[in-house]
Amino acid sequence: MLSEFSLIDRYFARRARTNTRRAALGIGDDCALIAPAAGEMLAVSTDMLVEGRHFLPDVDPRALGHKALAVNLSDLAAMGAAPLGFTLAFALPKPREDWLEAFSGGLFELADRYGCELIGGDTTAGPLNLCITVFGSVRQHDALRRDAARPGDDVWVSGTPGDARAGLGVLRGEWPHVQIDRADAAHFRRALEYPEPRVALGLALAGIARAALDVSDGLAGDLRHILERSHVNAEIDVDALPLSAALARLPRALQLQCALAGGDDYELCFTAAQAQRGAVEAAAQQAGVRVTRIGTITSPDLAASPEAAVAARDGAHAQHKAQAWPDIAWRDASGAPLNLTLQGFDHFHAD
User: Fold this and answer.
1) At the top level of its lineage, which domain of life is listed (predicted)?
2) Binding site per annotation, positions
Protein backbone atom coordinates (compact mmCIF):
# COMPACT_ATOMS: atom_id res chain seq x y z
CA MET A 1 0.00 0.00 0.00
CA LEU A 2 1.22 3.51 -0.82
CA SER A 3 2.55 5.62 2.04
CA GLU A 4 2.12 9.40 2.08
CA PHE A 5 5.70 10.02 0.92
CA SER A 6 5.79 7.29 -1.74
CA LEU A 7 2.49 8.65 -3.10
CA ILE A 8 3.93 12.17 -3.32
CA ASP A 9 7.17 11.04 -4.91
CA ARG A 10 5.66 8.62 -7.45
CA TYR A 11 2.82 10.77 -8.76
CA PHE A 12 3.85 14.34 -8.07
CA ALA A 13 7.43 15.12 -6.96
CA ARG A 14 9.16 12.93 -9.56
CA ARG A 15 7.05 14.44 -12.34
CA ALA A 16 7.69 17.97 -11.04
CA ARG A 17 11.45 17.44 -11.10
CA THR A 18 11.36 16.62 -14.81
CA ASN A 19 9.82 20.02 -15.66
CA THR A 20 11.77 23.09 -16.61
CA ARG A 21 12.62 24.73 -13.31
CA ARG A 22 10.90 28.12 -12.88
CA ALA A 23 11.48 28.44 -9.11
CA ALA A 24 14.85 29.23 -7.57
CA LEU A 25 14.15 26.32 -5.20
CA GLY A 26 11.29 23.96 -5.97
CA ILE A 27 9.78 20.84 -4.48
CA GLY A 28 11.74 18.88 -1.85
CA ASP A 29 12.58 21.53 0.77
CA ASP A 30 10.68 23.13 3.64
CA CYS A 31 9.71 26.06 1.42
CA ALA A 32 9.89 26.83 -2.27
CA LEU A 33 11.71 29.99 -3.33
CA ILE A 34 10.35 31.93 -6.29
CA ALA A 35 10.94 35.44 -7.58
CA PRO A 36 9.37 37.27 -10.53
CA ALA A 37 11.53 38.97 -13.12
CA ALA A 38 12.84 42.47 -12.47
CA GLY A 39 10.08 45.06 -12.68
CA GLU A 40 7.30 42.50 -12.15
CA MET A 41 5.05 41.67 -9.22
CA LEU A 42 4.07 38.26 -7.86
CA ALA A 43 0.42 37.35 -8.52
CA VAL A 44 -0.99 34.74 -6.10
CA SER A 45 -4.37 32.99 -6.06
CA THR A 46 -5.88 30.01 -4.22
CA ASP A 47 -8.90 27.89 -5.12
CA MET A 48 -10.39 24.94 -3.27
CA LEU A 49 -12.42 22.17 -4.90
CA VAL A 50 -14.61 20.10 -2.58
CA GLU A 51 -16.35 16.88 -3.59
CA GLY A 52 -20.10 17.36 -3.75
CA ARG A 53 -19.81 21.13 -3.96
CA HIS A 54 -17.49 21.72 -6.92
CA PHE A 55 -17.47 18.32 -8.58
CA LEU A 56 -19.51 15.12 -8.56
CA PRO A 57 -18.17 12.02 -6.77
CA ASP A 58 -17.94 10.00 -10.02
CA VAL A 59 -16.02 12.63 -12.01
CA ASP A 60 -13.23 11.37 -14.27
CA PRO A 61 -10.05 11.90 -12.17
CA ARG A 62 -8.12 13.03 -15.26
CA ALA A 63 -10.71 15.75 -15.85
CA LEU A 64 -10.55 16.67 -12.16
CA GLY A 65 -6.77 17.07 -12.34
CA HIS A 66 -7.15 19.35 -15.33
CA LYS A 67 -9.90 21.44 -13.76
CA ALA A 68 -8.18 21.79 -10.38
CA LEU A 69 -5.30 23.65 -12.02
CA ALA A 70 -7.35 25.31 -14.76
CA VAL A 71 -9.51 27.28 -12.32
CA ASN A 72 -6.36 28.70 -10.72
CA LEU A 73 -4.67 29.51 -14.02
CA SER A 74 -7.89 31.30 -14.94
CA ASP A 75 -7.33 33.68 -12.01
CA LEU A 76 -3.86 34.49 -13.34
CA ALA A 77 -5.38 35.08 -16.78
CA ALA A 78 -7.86 37.56 -15.30
CA MET A 79 -4.95 39.52 -13.80
CA GLY A 80 -2.94 39.38 -17.04
CA ALA A 81 -0.23 37.38 -15.24
CA ALA A 82 2.10 34.73 -16.65
CA PRO A 83 2.13 31.39 -14.72
CA LEU A 84 5.25 30.54 -12.69
CA GLY A 85 4.35 27.65 -10.40
CA PHE A 86 1.78 26.12 -8.05
CA THR A 87 1.37 24.18 -4.83
CA LEU A 88 -1.06 21.30 -4.33
CA ALA A 89 -2.61 20.24 -1.03
CA PHE A 90 -5.26 17.53 -0.95
CA ALA A 91 -7.10 15.08 1.25
CA LEU A 92 -7.78 11.65 -0.23
CA PRO A 93 -9.98 8.89 1.26
CA LYS A 94 -7.79 6.09 -0.14
CA PRO A 95 -4.53 6.21 -2.15
CA ARG A 96 -5.85 4.36 -5.21
CA GLU A 97 -3.08 4.08 -7.79
CA ASP A 98 -5.38 4.17 -10.84
CA TRP A 99 -7.06 7.33 -9.54
CA LEU A 100 -3.74 9.02 -8.75
CA GLU A 101 -2.28 8.12 -12.15
CA ALA A 102 -5.23 9.67 -13.98
CA PHE A 103 -5.52 12.71 -11.70
CA SER A 104 -1.82 13.58 -11.87
CA GLY A 105 -1.85 12.98 -15.63
CA GLY A 106 -4.59 15.57 -16.17
CA LEU A 107 -2.91 17.99 -13.78
CA PHE A 108 0.54 17.83 -15.35
CA GLU A 109 -0.70 17.83 -18.91
CA LEU A 110 -2.11 21.32 -18.30
CA ALA A 111 0.84 22.40 -16.13
CA ASP A 112 3.31 21.44 -18.85
CA ARG A 113 1.33 23.33 -21.47
CA TYR A 114 1.67 26.57 -19.50
CA GLY A 115 5.14 25.96 -18.07
CA CYS A 116 3.69 26.04 -14.55
CA GLU A 117 5.87 24.06 -12.14
CA LEU A 118 4.65 22.13 -9.08
CA ILE A 119 6.77 23.61 -6.28
CA GLY A 120 5.29 22.12 -3.12
CA GLY A 121 2.21 20.96 -1.25
CA ASP A 122 0.81 18.48 1.24
CA THR A 123 -1.43 15.42 1.40
CA THR A 124 -3.45 13.69 4.08
CA ALA A 125 -6.28 11.19 4.51
CA GLY A 126 -9.84 12.50 4.54
CA PRO A 127 -12.84 13.37 2.35
CA LEU A 128 -11.70 14.32 -1.15
CA ASN A 129 -10.68 17.98 -1.08
CA LEU A 130 -8.24 19.75 -3.40
CA CYS A 131 -6.53 23.08 -2.79
CA ILE A 132 -4.15 24.69 -5.27
CA THR A 133 -2.26 27.95 -4.87
CA VAL A 134 -0.85 29.34 -8.09
CA PHE A 135 1.88 31.94 -8.58
CA GLY A 136 2.41 34.20 -11.56
CA SER A 137 4.17 37.40 -12.53
CA VAL A 138 2.84 40.61 -14.02
CA ARG A 139 4.27 44.05 -14.69
CA GLN A 140 2.88 46.45 -12.09
CA HIS A 141 1.15 48.82 -14.49
CA ASP A 142 -0.24 46.03 -16.69
CA ALA A 143 -2.21 44.17 -13.99
CA LEU A 144 -5.92 43.87 -14.88
CA ARG A 145 -7.61 44.89 -11.63
CA ARG A 146 -11.31 44.83 -10.80
CA ASP A 147 -11.32 48.47 -9.67
CA ALA A 148 -10.22 50.03 -12.98
CA ALA A 149 -13.48 50.18 -15.01
CA ARG A 150 -14.54 53.66 -16.15
CA PRO A 151 -17.86 55.05 -17.44
CA GLY A 152 -17.99 54.70 -21.22
CA ASP A 153 -15.90 51.51 -21.25
CA ASP A 154 -17.07 48.61 -23.38
CA VAL A 155 -17.89 45.37 -21.56
CA TRP A 156 -16.47 42.28 -23.27
CA VAL A 157 -16.65 38.55 -22.63
CA SER A 158 -14.58 35.72 -24.10
CA GLY A 159 -15.82 32.41 -25.42
CA THR A 160 -19.41 31.25 -25.02
CA PRO A 161 -20.58 31.46 -21.38
CA GLY A 162 -23.27 29.06 -20.25
CA ASP A 163 -22.04 25.78 -21.70
CA ALA A 164 -20.60 24.56 -18.39
CA ARG A 165 -23.84 25.27 -16.53
CA ALA A 166 -25.73 23.39 -19.22
CA GLY A 167 -23.32 20.51 -18.67
CA LEU A 168 -24.18 20.43 -14.99
CA GLY A 169 -27.88 20.54 -15.83
CA VAL A 170 -27.50 17.56 -18.15
CA LEU A 171 -25.54 15.54 -15.57
CA ARG A 172 -28.13 16.29 -12.90
CA GLY A 173 -31.06 15.58 -15.21
CA GLU A 174 -32.55 19.00 -14.40
CA TRP A 175 -34.49 19.42 -17.65
CA PRO A 176 -36.19 16.08 -18.43
CA HIS A 177 -38.67 17.69 -20.85
CA VAL A 178 -35.98 19.39 -22.96
CA GLN A 179 -34.67 17.45 -25.94
CA ILE A 180 -30.84 17.58 -25.96
CA ASP A 181 -29.08 15.41 -28.51
CA ARG A 182 -26.01 13.34 -27.65
CA ALA A 183 -23.48 15.61 -29.39
CA ASP A 184 -24.75 18.72 -27.59
CA ALA A 185 -24.73 16.90 -24.25
CA ALA A 186 -21.11 15.84 -24.85
CA HIS A 187 -20.18 19.44 -25.72
CA PHE A 188 -21.75 20.73 -22.50
CA ARG A 189 -20.07 18.09 -20.37
CA ARG A 190 -16.63 18.83 -21.81
CA ALA A 191 -17.14 22.54 -21.13
CA LEU A 192 -17.91 21.67 -17.50
CA GLU A 193 -15.07 19.21 -16.95
CA TYR A 194 -12.30 20.69 -19.13
CA PRO A 195 -12.46 24.50 -18.85
CA GLU A 196 -9.75 26.29 -20.82
CA PRO A 197 -7.97 29.05 -18.86
CA ARG A 198 -7.63 32.16 -21.05
CA VAL A 199 -3.98 32.80 -20.14
CA ALA A 200 -2.92 33.89 -23.63
CA LEU A 201 -5.82 36.34 -23.84
CA GLY A 202 -5.08 37.82 -20.42
CA LEU A 203 -1.45 38.39 -21.41
CA ALA A 204 -2.46 39.90 -24.76
CA LEU A 205 -4.87 42.32 -23.05
CA ALA A 206 -2.15 43.80 -20.82
CA GLY A 207 -2.04 47.54 -21.41
CA ILE A 208 -5.30 47.37 -23.42
CA ALA A 209 -8.07 46.29 -21.06
CA ARG A 210 -8.83 48.17 -17.86
CA ALA A 211 -10.71 45.86 -15.46
CA ALA A 212 -11.08 42.10 -15.72
CA LEU A 213 -12.11 38.95 -13.89
CA ASP A 214 -12.82 35.35 -14.73
CA VAL A 215 -16.40 34.12 -14.88
CA SER A 216 -16.48 31.37 -12.26
CA ASP A 217 -19.79 32.04 -10.50
CA GLY A 218 -21.93 33.37 -13.37
CA LEU A 219 -21.62 36.42 -15.59
CA ALA A 220 -24.39 38.38 -13.84
CA GLY A 221 -22.88 37.88 -10.39
CA ASP A 222 -19.23 38.21 -11.38
CA LEU A 223 -19.70 41.41 -13.39
CA ARG A 224 -21.10 42.99 -10.22
CA HIS A 225 -17.70 42.51 -8.57
CA ILE A 226 -16.16 44.84 -11.16
CA LEU A 227 -19.00 47.31 -10.70
CA GLU A 228 -18.66 47.27 -6.91
CA ARG A 229 -14.90 47.75 -6.94
CA SER A 230 -15.00 50.42 -9.65
CA HIS A 231 -18.07 52.26 -8.29
CA VAL A 232 -19.92 52.10 -11.61
CA ASN A 233 -22.98 50.54 -13.24
CA ALA A 234 -23.47 48.72 -16.54
CA GLU A 235 -25.91 48.26 -19.39
CA ILE A 236 -25.84 44.82 -21.00
CA ASP A 237 -27.34 43.85 -24.37
CA VAL A 238 -28.67 40.37 -23.67
CA ASP A 239 -29.12 39.70 -27.40
CA ALA A 240 -25.38 40.26 -27.91
CA LEU A 241 -24.43 37.37 -25.60
CA PRO A 242 -22.23 34.90 -27.50
CA LEU A 243 -23.86 31.48 -27.39
CA SER A 244 -22.50 28.18 -28.64
CA ALA A 245 -24.58 26.45 -31.29
CA ALA A 246 -25.46 23.81 -28.69
CA LEU A 247 -26.69 26.33 -26.12
CA ALA A 248 -28.64 28.24 -28.79
CA ARG A 249 -30.71 25.09 -29.36
CA LEU A 250 -32.05 25.18 -25.80
CA PRO A 251 -35.22 27.16 -24.90
CA ARG A 252 -34.53 30.89 -24.57
CA ALA A 253 -35.18 30.95 -20.82
CA LEU A 254 -32.57 28.21 -20.28
CA GLN A 255 -30.10 29.97 -22.57
CA LEU A 256 -30.26 33.11 -20.44
CA GLN A 257 -30.19 31.24 -17.15
CA CYS A 258 -27.08 29.31 -18.17
CA ALA A 259 -25.26 32.17 -19.91
CA LEU A 260 -25.94 34.84 -17.28
CA ALA A 261 -26.34 33.00 -13.98
CA GLY A 262 -24.43 29.78 -14.57
CA GLY A 263 -20.95 29.16 -13.19
CA ASP A 264 -17.78 27.24 -14.11
CA ASP A 265 -17.23 28.95 -17.47
CA TYR A 266 -13.83 30.45 -16.58
CA GLU A 267 -14.13 32.88 -19.46
CA LEU A 268 -12.82 36.44 -19.06
CA CYS A 269 -15.15 39.39 -18.60
CA PHE A 270 -13.31 42.68 -19.03
CA THR A 271 -13.74 46.34 -19.80
CA ALA A 272 -11.78 48.56 -22.19
CA ALA A 273 -12.08 52.08 -23.53
CA GLN A 274 -14.07 52.38 -26.75
CA ALA A 275 -10.93 53.67 -28.48
CA GLN A 276 -9.34 50.26 -27.79
CA ARG A 277 -11.85 48.18 -29.76
CA GLY A 278 -9.42 47.45 -32.56
CA ALA A 279 -6.66 46.58 -30.08
CA VAL A 280 -8.98 44.24 -28.16
CA GLU A 281 -9.94 42.40 -31.34
CA ALA A 282 -6.27 42.15 -32.35
CA ALA A 283 -5.37 40.76 -28.91
CA ALA A 284 -8.15 38.19 -29.19
CA GLN A 285 -6.96 37.16 -32.64
CA GLN A 286 -3.40 36.85 -31.33
CA ALA A 287 -4.63 34.63 -28.48
CA GLY A 288 -6.91 32.60 -30.75
CA VAL A 289 -9.95 33.34 -28.57
CA ARG A 290 -13.32 34.75 -29.54
CA VAL A 291 -14.37 37.93 -27.71
CA THR A 292 -17.72 39.72 -27.89
CA ARG A 293 -18.73 43.23 -26.88
CA ILE A 294 -21.89 42.90 -24.78
CA GLY A 295 -22.42 46.25 -23.09
CA THR A 296 -21.22 49.51 -21.63
CA ILE A 297 -20.05 50.76 -18.26
CA THR A 298 -22.22 53.63 -17.03
CA SER A 299 -22.03 56.22 -14.25
CA PRO A 300 -24.08 55.74 -11.07
CA ASP A 301 -27.18 57.94 -11.10
CA LEU A 302 -27.24 59.37 -7.58
CA ALA A 303 -30.44 61.27 -8.34
CA ALA A 304 -32.30 58.17 -9.52
CA SER A 305 -34.49 58.23 -6.40
CA PRO A 306 -35.91 60.96 -4.16
CA GLU A 307 -33.88 59.54 -1.24
CA ALA A 308 -30.63 59.87 -3.18
CA ALA A 309 -31.49 63.42 -4.23
CA VAL A 310 -32.18 64.42 -0.61
CA ALA A 311 -28.96 62.74 0.50
CA ALA A 312 -26.94 64.64 -2.10
CA ARG A 313 -28.60 67.92 -1.06
CA ASP A 314 -27.86 67.22 2.61
CA GLY A 315 -24.24 66.29 1.98
CA ALA A 316 -24.75 62.57 2.68
CA HIS A 317 -23.33 61.58 -0.69
CA ALA A 318 -21.05 58.88 0.65
CA GLN A 319 -23.77 57.24 2.73
CA HIS A 320 -26.09 56.80 -0.25
CA LYS A 321 -23.49 56.18 -2.91
CA ALA A 322 -23.60 52.45 -2.26
CA GLN A 323 -27.33 52.48 -3.03
CA ALA A 324 -26.65 53.79 -6.56
CA TRP A 325 -24.39 50.90 -7.60
CA PRO A 326 -23.82 48.26 -8.59
CA ASP A 327 -26.75 48.11 -10.97
CA ILE A 328 -27.01 46.22 -14.25
CA ALA A 329 -29.60 47.39 -16.79
CA TRP A 330 -30.51 44.41 -18.95
CA ARG A 331 -31.66 45.38 -22.47
CA ASP A 332 -32.44 43.69 -25.77
CA ALA A 333 -30.87 44.60 -29.12
CA SER A 334 -33.35 47.46 -29.64
CA GLY A 335 -32.43 48.98 -26.28
CA ALA A 336 -35.71 48.00 -24.63
CA PRO A 337 -35.34 47.15 -20.93
CA LEU A 338 -35.70 43.54 -19.79
CA ASN A 339 -36.91 42.50 -16.37
CA LEU A 340 -34.38 39.83 -15.38
CA THR A 341 -33.72 38.65 -11.84
CA LEU A 342 -30.33 36.98 -11.84
CA GLN A 343 -27.58 36.26 -9.39
CA GLY A 344 -24.41 34.25 -9.51
CA PHE A 345 -23.45 31.08 -7.68
CA ASP A 346 -22.98 31.40 -3.90
CA HIS A 347 -20.98 28.64 -2.18
CA PHE A 348 -23.02 28.97 1.02
CA HIS A 349 -26.46 29.24 -0.60
CA ALA A 350 -26.25 26.79 -3.51
CA ASP A 351 -28.54 23.80 -3.79
Assistant:
1) Bacteria
2) 30, 45-47, 54, 75, 121-122, 146, 214, 216-217, 264, 345
